[in-house]
Predict the structure.
Amino acid sequence: MTSSWQVILDAVPVLLEGSLITLKIVSISLAIAFVIGLISGLMSTSSNKLLRVPALFYVDLIRGTPLLVQVFFIYLGLPVFLDIRIPAEAAGIAAISLNAGAYISEIFRGGINSIHRGQMEAARSLGMSRYLTMRLVILPQAIRRMTPAFVNQVIVSIKDTSLLSVIGIRELTQSGEIIIAENFRAFEIWGVVGIFYFIIIYALSWLARRLERRFAVK
Amino acid sequence: MKKIGSLLVTALLALSISACGTTADQTAGTSPDAAKSGEGTKKYVFGTDATYPPFEFEKDGKYVGIDVELINAIAKEEGFEVELKPMDFKGIIPAITAKQLDGAIAGISITEERKQVVALSEPYYKAGLSLVVREDNTEIKGPDDLKGKVIAIKKGTTGAKQADELAKKHGAQVKYFDDSPAMFQEVVNKNADVTIEDYPVVSYKIAVDPASKLKIVGDRLNGDFYGIAVSKDNTELMKKINDGLKKVKDSGKLDEIINKYMKSESK
């Protein structure tokens, strides 16, 4: 019987590849989610009902259904309806983007609402447009307050990508499953997969804390 | 702050645009393959399980196994290309009906229910199910000993169907899993008493993994035949598969492939 260390050593290159796919999917998805979240968050703080209602509906819809169901819906459901083929990676990125986008939308809404409305009034009375006030006064402050919540969402999304193993994306979790199918070493492999996730997330948290300190209001 | 803000926005925009680019490329990349018959060979996407030795699994970064070699042999005979796409077994048939896959080879038993939604090829292997318990289990010797026991099974398999029937008949409880390794682990960890799996898969596992702590009990249950699944309206591909399968069978290549992975099997 091969030793545990040998089993782990053999698994590392495959798991590294899986980690790279996890990171790739997460970074693409979060970039898209940030844009979706910003737009939807701004819409949901608007006083115009036509903007606010669709944004809130989107958030409720995504928050009200499990991500796994969203993944299956996009990958296995939509193609039947639209009669097209959606590659697994595109479906995975779409699911994570839409999912994280809804939560980031709420982070933006909370951040914007946390800025005293007096600031909007003050800027407007100085003759600044609503858009300019948002961009130059409200958002810069709101984004600072949002940082911890945003970092949290990034971490949640990294872990959420493990769900994409069900549609055959070779991210970190699926890589682990495939190795175990060959060598049946559940203890060693799931242990190492866990350590890999931990390292990725810990490195990110560390980086985020440093950035937060740099941007902190002095 | 303003500078940082605009920098951030620019960076994000650039990122998401390039991201959309990749996604679009991928969308464009897969589907027209089938249409690109003009230049070179046709390429079909086949789903597989990848966690199912000896039929399909990964060794040193390559997909190997009976199913993998068989589909490649058929593709060679019929002059098409195969792209294997590993995924959860329970998602494979839905993915074919959703046209996400052209077909699948994953130790798929030929059943009436499956024939309703996908086309299945001529049979290429007779599997048969076995009851599997932890090696120190002396209580369970056959289906009649299942009363009050916990059966671990894999979702969407014929073994699962069999387990449901046995559970109803003998008063056992069924627990569902996504892949075979998880299901075996459940029995090893004593969270389930027994599992039902295709005989060759268990016998392979026990032969390759001396620490498996598992044993087969009782006789083989009903014998299912494995077939290759193809999207129902793709009669062209189905014909190629059946023709190719016949050639591979007649030439003795199929037996050769099976024997290569079944050295451990006594029968």
The mean pLDDT of chain B is 84. The domain at 40-126+225-262 of chain B is CATH 3.40.190.10 (D-Maltodextrin-Binding Protein; domain 2). Chain B has ten helices and 13 strands.
